[in-house]
């Protein structure tokens, strides 16, 4: 398995003077995460880049944490946009291959990396804006909930066919674990309660509901929705293009990315000490609770996932996923 081996400064731009980019890569050289930073604006962009679905493996979790820490260590940066290089999938949640027939040494490490991702993201001194361009099921939804603000794509008319044949692309978001025969861990479930309130969360967790954007907005799972139609006369916002990594340059006129950029800019202008202190007012107790039960949570997770019945469910689920993908 790959291990994250570098978080490297790749380029220093002379254009804006204080903009640079780096990537956090696995041993095979793939950039799992691409980071760009604009010190003048005080904002950064962290683009998840693990094809095909930005699923969260041990290495991916570590790469996101490493990149976030790199950004946090720069005192000029106050906010960050969390985005995906895949326009149709924000993150498909945990990499299911981590759960199926797991190696006994790797499984607790994997779970620890997810716990750490939660602690780093939810407790970050940076204001994190999730630009949710596509699907965000299960731990993909968790990632978004650990941010400070969520903007979701309203869905789009896909490029398949024309006229009446046009196919609507509707992304969904939610903790759908029960549909997979597993349960979200307590801290993830509680994050949903904190985000959408007790009754809505109770129902959504039991049913494993995946919400389309309008429903997600109406229950407060996301803060805003935005079309992704790039208008012919789209305005270009100064600074966004430079912040986008080269693989996502075409997103500069995307209204969703523009909205995320504006929100990140707004966050960056708030006095940082006050913003961070107020963030801790609402988040610190949840973080402390999670740290206090961390080892117990890991033991519970490993015990649960390795049960024969759970493994059977997961194997069937992965097979169904693969055959669906093959049929396309
Ligand atoms: C203490 C309690 C203990 C128990 C705790 C359990 C842990 C609970 C916490 C979190 C659970 C999870 O996150 S489990 C993962 C859940 N995720 C899903 O169920 C999503 C599955 N994927 C999809 O539904 C779809 O892929 C999609 C809606 C995200 C996108 O659909 P689309 O049609 O665009 O793409 P494809 O389905 O064709 O997929 C493309 C490609 O990606 C691979 N893929 C997708 N999801 C995953 C994944 N989660 N892990 C690994 N790989 C994934 C899929 O197989 C395709 O690959 P190939 O083209 O190579 O076949």
TrEMBL record:
- Write down the chemical reaction(s) this protein catalyses: (3Z)-dodecenoyl-CoA = (2E)-dodecenoyl-CoA; (2E)-tetradecenoyl-CoA = (3Z)-tetradecenoyl-CoA; (3Z)-decenoyl-CoA = (2E)-decenoyl-CoA; (3Z)-octenoyl-CoA = (2E)-octenoyl-CoA
Q: Does the keyword Lipid metabolism apply?
A: yes
Pathway per the UniProt entry: Lipid metabolism; fatty acid beta-oxidation
Gene3D superfamilies according to UniProt: 2-enoyl-CoA Hydratase, Chain A, domain 1, 6.10.250.170
Annotated compartments: Mitochondrion matrix
From what superkingdom does this record's organism come? Eukaryota
GO CC annotation: what is one?
mitochondrial matrix
One biological process term from GO is:
fatty acid metabolic process
Q: Which InterPro entries match?
A: ClpP/crotonase-like_dom_sf, Enoyl-CoA_hyd/isom_CS, Enoyl-CoA_hydra/iso
Question: Where is it mainly found?
Answer: mitochondrion
What quaternary arrangement does the UniProt entry report? Homotrimer.
Q: Which family does it belong to?
A: Belongs to the enoyl-CoA hydratase/isomerase family.
Q: In UniProt terms, what function does this protein have?
A: Key enzyme of fatty acid beta-oxidation. Able to isomerize both 3-cis (3Z) and 3-trans (3E) double bonds into the 2-trans (2E) form in a range of enoyl-CoA species, with a preference for (3Z)-enoyl-CoAs over (3E)-enoyl-CoAs. The catalytic efficiency of this enzyme is not affected by the fatty acyl chain length.
* Stated name of the protein: Enoyl-CoA delta isomerase 1, mitochondrial
Origin species, per record, is Discostella pseudostelligera
């Amino acid at each position: 398995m790959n291990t994250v081996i570098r978080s490297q400064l790749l380029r220093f731009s002379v254009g804006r003077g204080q903009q640079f980019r780096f990537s956090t890569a696995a041993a095979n050289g793939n950039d799992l995460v691409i980071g760009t930073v604009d010190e003048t604006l005080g904002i950064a962009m962290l683009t998840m880049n693990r094809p095909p679905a930005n699923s969260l493996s041990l290495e991916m979790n570590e790469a996101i944490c490493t990149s976030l820490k790199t950004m946090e260590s720069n005192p000029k940066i106050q906010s960050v946009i969390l985005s995906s290089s895949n326009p149709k999938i924000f993150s498909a949640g945990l990499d299911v291959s981590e759960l199926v027939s797991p190696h006994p040494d790797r499984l607790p490490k994997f779970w620890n990396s997810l716990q750490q991702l939660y602690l780093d993201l939810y407790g970050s001194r940076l204001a994190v804006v999730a630009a949710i361009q596509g699907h965000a099921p299960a731990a993909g939804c968790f990632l978004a909930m650990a941010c400070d603000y969520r903007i979701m794509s309203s869905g789009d008319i896909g490029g398949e066919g024309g006229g009446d044949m046009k196919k609507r692309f509707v992304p969904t978001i939610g903790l759908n674990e029960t549909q997979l025969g597993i349960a979200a861990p307590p801290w993830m479930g509680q994050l949903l309660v904190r985000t959408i309130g007790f009754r809505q969360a109770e129902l959504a967790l039991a049913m494993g509901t995946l919400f389309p954007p309008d429903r997600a907005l109406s229950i407060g799972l996301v803060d805003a929705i935005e079309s992704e139609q790039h208008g012919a006369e789209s305005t270009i916002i100064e600074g966004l293009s430079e912040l986008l990594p080269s693989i996502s340059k075409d997103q500069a006129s995307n209204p969703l990315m523009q909205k995320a950029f504006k929100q990140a800019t707004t966050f960056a202008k708030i006095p940082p000490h006050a913003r961070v202190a107020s963030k801790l007012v609402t988040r610190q107790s949840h973080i402390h609770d999670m740290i206090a039960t961390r080892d117990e949570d890991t033991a519970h997770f490993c015990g649960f996932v390795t049960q024969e019945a759970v493994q059977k469910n997961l194997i069937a689920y992965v097979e169904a996923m693969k055959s669906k993908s093959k049929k396309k």
